[in-house]
Amino acid sequence: MNDVAFHHAPIGLAELENRVIRRCNVEFATMFGGAPEDYQNLPLLNLYPSLADFERIGQRGLQAMRETGEYHDERVMRRRNGELFWCRVRGKSLTPDDPFRHGIWSFADISEDRPVIELTPREREVAIRTCHGLSAKEIGAELGLSYRTVEAHRARLLQKFGARKLPELVAKLSGMPL
């Protein structure tokens, strides 16, 4: 990869080996805070809100990358100063037989489009599936929860987002990509 193009790309780029940053570009470092050399050999875990998020997203990403060699999502990440922000992440494995061994990942700060509202990982999963139009029973089946538990999560989401009814919640969530 051309080093000039990599280092000055208008989107955050990082080359990862086994979920450890080997190098990143200026935009990546600016987004997370600091300079590119601050991230060399830094475990990606350090940029997640929690170990649970790192493990959960890693499992989901590994499964997708084994199937297609690529993965993308939108998630909350953590800057060096501890601030949480929404980030669009896309990755491509350079070693399809071992997807996390070596890959190129892009990171885009999308926090201007979406406020950070503290959600539990389970609330986030329920919110995503709600936006995909799934019923409480369908969400419960996918997540191994009772539909009543899903409804309880939805009630908390309604409160957190200041929505009165489910269609209003979906409208608020759909304006903020999950």
From TrEMBL:
- Give the GO terms filed under biological process for this record: regulation of DNA-templated transcription
- What's the short name of a Pfam family annotated to this entry? PAS_9
PROSITE patterns for the chain: HTH_LUXR_1, HTH_LUXR_2
Q: MF terms per GO, please? A: DNA binding
- Identify the CDD domains for this entry: LuxR_C_like, PAS
Specify the HTH luxR-type domain's residue ranges: 112-177
What InterPro entries does this protein map onto?
PAS (IPR000014), PAS-like_dom_sf (IPR035965), Sig_transdc_resp-reg_C-effctor (IPR016032), Tscrpt_reg_LuxR_C (IPR000792), WH-like_DNA-bd_sf (IPR036388)
Q: Which domain of life is it from?
A: Bacteria
Listed A to Z, the keywords are: DNA-binding, Transcription, Transcription regulation
NCBIfam families the UniProt entry points to? sensory_box
User: What is the protein name stated in its UniProt record?
Assistant: PAS domain S-box-containing protein
The protein's organism comes out as Jhaorihella thermophila
Which lineage? Bacteria, Pseudomonadati, Pseudomonadota, Alphaproteobacteria, Rhodobacterales
